[in-house]
Every structure is written in C-alpha cells, then in structure tokens.
Amino acid sequence: MKTLAILAASLLVIAMPAMRGVRAQTTDGTQVATLIERNAGLLAQATELVQETNSTRARSLLQTATSLQRQSEELLANNQLAMAGRVALRAREAIQQTIATAKRDARLEDQTTRVMERAVTRLEQARSVFEESGRENPNARRLIFESADNLRRAQEQRQEHMFETSLRLAEASLMQSTRAIRMLRRDGTGAGADAGDEIDRTQRVLDRATEVRPSDPARVRLLEQATEMQTRAIRAAERGDALPALEQTRGARDLALRVLRGSGAGVAPAEDVAMRAIGLTDEILEGARALLAENPNQALARRVEEAGRQQEDARRALADGDFDRAAQVSMNARAMIRGALQEIDVAVSPESAGAALARTDAALDELRAALSAHDNAGARDLLERATARQRDARAALQDGEPKRALALTRVAHNLARTGLDALNDADR
Question: What pTM did the predictor assign?
C-alpha cells in the first residue's frame, strides 16, 4: 500500500505542470478572443465615424486596421494564440488612431468651412469698398486679386479633401481682403475697418455658441437673435454703413457670450492670436522656401523644413482647439525660419540674383503675350509695376548689390504672376 501511495503521489506531481499549461493556454486563448472581440466593436465605431467624414487619412488608417483585425481573427481560428495576440494589439492601436484622426479631421473640415464662408463675405465686401471708393489704389487692387486667388485655391483643395491646406489658403484670403479694406478706408474715420474686425470677432464667438448647441429654450432664442443681428451687421457693412454695423455686431456678440456663459463654455480669445501667428509664419515660410530654391543649401533647407513640420503641428493644434499651443509652436517655427533667412541672405551671389532676374523676365514676357491677346486694365497696371521693379533690380545687380537685386526681382516676379492670375480669373 505504501508503494502504491508513493507512486500515486509521484504521478500527481508529474501531471501538475501539464495541467497548469493547459489552464494557462485556455486563459490566454480567452484573453486573446476577448481582445479581438472588443477590437471588432471599436472597428465598427471607427468605420461609422470615417463614413461620416471626408478624411482620406482616416480612410487609409481604417483599411490598415481592418486588415490587421482580419489577420488576428484568422490566427485565432488556427489556434496561433501568441501571434494572434500581437496582431490584435497592433489592430487596437490602428483602430484608436483611426478614430482620433477621423474626429480631428472632421473638426478641421468644419473649421475650414466656417473660415471659407467668412473669406467669401469679406472678399465681396473688399470688392464693394474698392468700387465705391472711386480712387485708384493699386496696392488694394493687388490684395483683392491675391485674396480671390487664394480663395479659389482653398475651394479646390477642399474639394480634394486637403483641409489643412484649404484652411491656410482661406485664412490668407480673409487677411488679404481685410488689409485691402483697411487700406481703402485709411483716410476715412476708420470705422469701416473696425466694423470688419468686430464682425470677425463676433463670428468666432457665434461659431462657438452654435457648437455648444444649447437645449434651454431661452438660450436658443438668444442664439437666434444674435444670428439675426450679425446678419444685419454684415449687410450694413456691405452697404458701407459702418456705425450701424458696429452696433449690430457688438450686440450680437453680447448675446452669444450670454449663451456661452449659460452653457458653461468659455470663449477662446487666443484663437485669433493663433490664426494670425500661423498666417504670418506661412508667409515667411513661403519666402524662405523660394529663396532656398534660388540659393540651394542643404543644411538651411533642413532647418526650414523642420520649421515647416512645426507649422503643421501648430495647425493641428489649432484644429484641436489648443490655441495657446498653436500660437507658441507657430512662433517658434517663425523664429527658426528667420534664423535661417539671415544665413540665406549672406549666401546670395550675383549668379543666383542673375538667375532670378532671368526667371522674372520670362514671367514678364508671358504676361505681355497674354495681354496682347486679352487686354485687362488691372493686369496691365501690374505689368507696369513689375517692369519698374525689374528695372530697379537689374540696376542694383549692376551696382554690385545682389541681395537688393534678388529682393526687387522677386517682387517683380510676384506682380507678374498676380497679373497672369487676374487674366485667368477674367477668362473664367
């Protein structure tokens, strides 16, 4: 009996590790199956979100997530638990990234739409003020041409679902139209320009109040009244009645602020600062890239492109509503670009300035040829200004000032391209 008891105990000891292995394998299999099942639920949510947006990035991520989910299910069915678990974790990460991207791009698309609507209204206002001024102002005309071109490109980029680029162009258009209006009314009371700025400020508050979606009937009525007053303000500004426009838009803002306060939401004045910071950095970034194209320098190009990446981060922060971070990141990018620009200026050579002059000559010849076929007073004025700047640039180069020559010929080149764009717009 004693021998049998010892033998039974030995067999039990030998069997215990095997039993633990079977139990662990069963537990692991259950955990992997649960993870994959939860992933399927999240994937369904991600699919629904992506279908409601126009985000190409989210669609691409969704394809990756769906493929990984399918792989994990197949591995689980084949009892390859370790591999199934690893793939399921990758699928979870891809699904979460898809959801975050779809939400961010949806907000960005909505923001782009709102800014474009304001840009359209402001451009129409700038054109109206220009026509009613009765004065010849080439700089204001140029700003209006550039604003129209940026707005057209913003609409094209939006149709391609390139919302970040579309937003940047729409913001540029809005600023250019505003600058044109200020320029045209500079010798007046200044109320016209103030009205435009005030209407913009009110619109941003109204947008936030609308996003809150108040359910209380009293706040709903306040929001409706604010929207009506803002509409009256815009119409008054378009007629040139600046003082009524100011009165109406400020009243609308007060009502919208009451809606926000009643809903427990705050107003973000930093949004305006962030938008201006990003717009200014975009202009400097574009100029730096143009200079580097004329004066290749790999080290400086890397710094400028790093600044460009920071600018994209700033734009994403703006879309996420993190306005303080957006402004700070954009200003850091601008400082980096300016540092690079100082070194680019040192590297300007007579050869690079001469090459830039040749490119401007070609643009001027193209504009002259286009004007010979379709005359246009605005484009002809731009040609005359561009020709004068090009003449000054050539004189600067002959005097041994390549930096000044490069700056002048770039202005001439931009004027020539603006003239060509004006002719193209007229043809359309």
Answer: 0.38
